């Protein structure tokens, strides 16, 4: 049994069928004219060998590729409509089905800053007897130990369905050479949910895959239960196929490990600010990447990855808290569904650097809306602040509670003959009692989980202590044990996979 | 045998299962006897009603209280349990009287004149009854005259007045004055409650106590009892 996520009963859609067709047609036009600028030789050759028009542009060091619609449509035919993301505990696996709006929430993504929280007391200047406790936030560089802690925490966050490392490991002894194996091992060893990440160095791909095979129990087992997957952002918007990530895309597809093909243009700077233009372009980019993957390896498990943002008006940086962010993302979820593909979508990022009211508004705004659309895999949903530059674990604990509420909100209504008959009986019964209260009927529904529990971080109702309570909760969760990779497997991994730091070894002596 | 049935009463109170129709905590208990049937059965077997109260009902409610404190139980659980105790007390009252065990006291509950809000008052009634008090609930929109009449007739130990409107709060004062005019003020303790009221307001109008919620209502009543 895979994880349940939430199956959205009736999805919210912005675009009409006509509008989706219009976007599709526009994307197809974009792929032929102007086409894409391909900086990867092998990709250009592949496109060319399948009949795309490819012109070398030596002055720019790239190839102009014009991808005909037939090539894209052919690729869409071989692209799997259902992708399984496995997990170390198989009950944590995820089934992303393009035709089913079952929503999973995941973390993300490689922030540099880890935000610690402290509880401090402040005394009023006007009345020395008044003392209040406040949460204060302290940024620092993220480290390997933090990633381990984030994974342990993520294991115990009930509504976190999939894990993308939320922090970049910047320890002195982490190099480009050993980063991939260490970051994957840190995640895999500290949680039993699905692990997804980008790849730092292509030449470490086989070592990471080997590690996953050892955990899964062999090559075939890993295919059956792909407990890791990768993300590649093959395009640099607008429309430039990057050499490095394109090569990663090609190689990962060849290994048969599930792959998110994502694109992240910014409306107003690297894509049109207008909704139609932005969505047509990102859709073209994602389809361009998917087409390449299927030409390399027909039937390869790839996921439609859309991360459109809008340019900030003060700094042209990516912004997530604005309504247009939601518009763009909803449209992308719809376009993925238009092709029958599962969608890796985006929600829950705050533009502000610290938790608080602004962060809460910004993140919930997209978490509710994108879930309502039925995006299969919503990444960035836990703890991200500062436009994805900062990860705050306490914020992730708060997000987990909010996402639980969102999941409850989206459950299907139960209105059928049996339910209505029971309600009629209940009403008739209560009318015969002196107090005319329905209270006793709350209980079974409370126990079955249909009635949601009180807000978990509620204080004395006079002060807002949400972060202080969430911090206590986080500390409690971090004390709980996690199921590590068993000793024999761990030992084999340390023996066979080079570059792992000894301090990650749970079973190390001393 | 006796121990068995008292234990069963206790467990059913903890579960808030009123009678055999009650599906119970997590459904699926329909058909098994609830508190109502068990108490009757126990009486038929000749079980001492005092033991039923102390070892069954009271012990159960203290466990319910602990679970509530631990946030394991919520107010619906508390009310369901209290309701079963209230029902059990109704059945046991005549037998307890015979065996010389009086109820903890008699309380008249009412929402005052002009005010129709009775949800909070009903909850207070259920909880007080569950705590072992005999409660006579007069409903809502109860005039001072009717209160004077019932105090004369039933001689309760307490009157609990509820008001939810700032405009009807003054009817509490009126009620207390009417009791005084009828020479009954020192015969009965008056406690008040309802969202717009407060301990200060209670003092101002000469009430004996104030409770912010149903649990405080029980506490206030117990305190007043000890003082007198
Ligand atoms: C439900 C409700 C109604 C229902 C009442 C249904 C019913 N069966 O009771 C209806 C729709 C009928 C109603 C009508 C009106 N209502 Co109204 N109503 C409410 C509401 C939403 C909830 C009250 C409630 O049941 N709370 C839940 C219970 C559990 O809490 P509680 O009553 O406070 O009781 C607890 C404690 O106070 C305490 N307690 C209560 N009584 C006692 C007694 C003792 C002895 C003790 C110790 C403790 C105690 O213990 C209880 C349990 O914990 C309130 C808003 C609010 N949140 O308070 C408005 C409110 C009370 N209503 C209001 C108004 C204005 C009206 C109307 C005048 C509206 C109109 N224009 O028609 C009418 C008045 C009708 C009338 N003559 O009474 C206003 C009052 C404003 C004011 N300052 O006076 C309120 C505050 C809403 C608002 N903010 O405008 N109302």
Keywords:
heterodimer, A: 510 residues, alpha/beta, TIM Barrel, 3 domains, nine-stranded mixed beta sheet, five-stranded mixed beta sheet, 16 helices, 41% helix, B: Methyltransferase, Methionine Synthase (B12-binding Domains), Chain A, domain 1, Rossmann fold, binds cobalamin
Describe the structure.
The complex is a heterodimer of chains A (510) and B (228). By secondary structure, chain A is α/β, with parallel strands linked by helices. Chain A contains 16 helices and 23 strands. Chain A has a nine-stranded mixed sheet with strand order 1-7-21-20-17-15-12-11-10. A five-stranded mixed sheet of chain A has the order 3-4-2-14-13. The longest helix of chain A has 22 residues, at 275-296. The radius of gyration of chain A is 24 Å and the shape is globular. The model of chain A has no long low-confidence stretch (mean pLDDT 96). Chain B has 228 residues and is of the alpha/beta class. Chain B has two domains: 2-99, Methionine synthase domain (Methyltransferase, Methionine Synthase (B12-binding Domains), Chain A, domain 1), CATH 1.10.1240.10; 106-227, Cobalamin-binding domain (Rossmann fold). Chain B contains nine helices and five strands, in the order ααααβαβαβαβαβα. The model of chain B has no long low-confidence stretch (mean pLDDT 92). The interface between A and B is medium-sized, with 13 and 20 residues. The complex binds cobalamin. Cobalamin binds at residues 114-121, 123-124, 160-162, 164-166, 191-196, 211, 213-214, 217 of chain B.
